[in-house]
């Protein structure tokens, strides 16, 4: 990864000046994150210091391992003894969480990586558990099987290695997809009749967020203000749309032209990312929603990136600086690789940065 901050500083110190027109014409820098020696990777989360969590294939593509990227450096986090592992979430302290095959590849268990230490978080009694989020206090959210033998999944939070069952809205299954710094959890649960509704758990209280009029809804993200992002079926249609729930208000975010869209994450500025079908439902494209405006993130790619075959097929996370990560597909080779889109500073910010660097240089010369 090469962050926009590093790019800005490199340009400033080498004496290159970009005009306001050039800066505003390309509002994001695009970086492919690379792999652990194999051919594919994915980026699932990014914290507010710019550290990215995901997974990458190792040399020979014999396994996929949980990975973090610090700048341009990728680190293999290893496994719980099995072949594959995935880092799905990371907090601002750099603690990553996800899941890993256990020894013998018999089952996946929720896992947490703190530096070089990997911890098996266990289950609610079943054979499998999976992670979706971790907050600043290190509380992990996901879901776990209740008992051996294909029992239902229940939304789960882990304090350390202790799992807590969050229950359901009355149905069989539930899934926790995100947790904010207040410990409020967002996800979805089936209600009586096998229909799924977006759900918020605040302590022991589960709240049904409802839908846009259709049968089903799903929550994927929640910010520290309690605004929830996800998707909902549309009344009288087979389509589902990206949706946000703000207190008692449910808002249809629309699409970039196709019938379906899904919001996956939301930051504390209210920016939402996910994916949408393009016009004619030709393809799934990574999408950013600022308020009611849906933007295909591929529109920010340099033509050279597009001609090389890269398409942003989804956006999995956005941090409070607006940095976005997700999966990119190369339509020429069929390979997948995690990407970073980092906002380029606005012209005013750019000018202030260059002024600050100039003052710093002057201070060094005359000190």
From TrEMBL:
Chain ranges of the Ice-binding protein C-terminal domain: 343-365
Region forming the signal peptide: 1-25
Keywords: Signal
The keyword Signal appears for this protein: yes
Pfam families, per database record: PEP-CTERM (PF07589)
Matching InterPro entries: HAF_rpt, Ice-binding_C
Protein name as catalogued: Putative extracellular repeat, HAF family
């Amino acid at each position: 990864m090469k962050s926009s901050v590093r790019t800005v500083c490199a340009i400033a110190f080498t004496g290159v000046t970009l005009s306001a027109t050039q800066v505003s014409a390309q509002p994001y820098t695009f970086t492919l994150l690379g792999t652990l020696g194999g051919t594919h990777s994915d980026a699932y989360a990014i914290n507010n210091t710019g550290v990215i969590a995901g997974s990458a294939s190792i040399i020979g593509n014999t396994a996929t391992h949980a990975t973090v990227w610090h700048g341009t450096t990728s680190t293999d986090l290893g496994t719980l003894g099995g072949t594959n592992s995935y880092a799905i979430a990371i907090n601002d302290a750099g603690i990553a969480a996800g899941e890993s095959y256990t020894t013998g590849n018999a089952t996946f268990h929720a896992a947490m990586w703190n530096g070089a230490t990997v911890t098996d978080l266990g289950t609610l009694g079943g054979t499998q558990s999976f992670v979706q989020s971790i907050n600043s206090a290190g509380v992990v959210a996901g879901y776990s099987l209740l008992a051996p033998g294909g029992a239902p999944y229940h939304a789960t939070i882990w304090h350390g290695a202790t799992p807590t069952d969050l229950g359901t809205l009355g149905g069989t299954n539930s899934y926790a997809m995100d947790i904010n710094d207040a410990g409020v959890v967002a996800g979805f649960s089936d209600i009586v009749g096998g229909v799924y509704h977006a759900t918020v758990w605040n302590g022991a209280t589960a709240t049904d967020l409802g839908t846009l009029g259709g049968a089903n809804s799903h929550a994927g993200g929640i910010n520290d203000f309690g605004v929830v992002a996800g998707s909902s079926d549309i009344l009288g249609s087979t389509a589902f749309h990206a949706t946000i729930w703000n207190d008692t208000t449910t808002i249809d975010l629309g699409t970039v032209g196709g019938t379906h869209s899904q919001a996956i994450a939301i930051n504390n500025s209210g920016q939402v990312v996910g994916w949408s079908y393009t016009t004619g439902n030709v393809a799934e494209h990574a999408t950013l929603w600022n308020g009611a405006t849906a933007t295909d993130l591929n529109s920010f790619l340099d033509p050279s990136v597009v001609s090389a075959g890269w398409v942003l097929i989804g956006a999995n996370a956005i941090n409070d600086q607006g940095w976005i990560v997700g999966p990119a597909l190369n339509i020429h080779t069929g390979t997948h690789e995690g990407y970073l889109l980092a906002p380029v500073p606005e012209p005013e910010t750019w000018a202030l940065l260059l002024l600050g660097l100039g003052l710093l240089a002057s201070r060094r010369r005359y000190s």
